[in-house]
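Reopening this one. Same input as before:
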Amino acid sequence: MSHYCYILRCADQRYYVGATRDLQRRLRDHQHGKVESTRLRQPVSLVYYEVFSEASEAYRRERALKNGRTRKATREQLILNFPPARLNPFKRS
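Same output, byte for byte:
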């Protein structure tokens, strides 16, 4: 089973970083206001994700993207270099 670390861009132009094993469901939860952290920051859009085989790897990556002095620059570089076509399976239909 795959596990994901992901980045959302919120309406306030800030980023939300999370990890989950079901990215499609988690995005739906964010978009329908079921996640407290992003409820008041709607709409949100997926801008980046990574796939891991183990949950521990995904959560470790989430912590790394949330912590550290260079986290903003790191996130922005990841997003900038992420192929937009990889987001297609997760776009709203």
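So the earlier flakiness isn't reproducible anymore. For the record, The chain has a mean pLDDT of 93.
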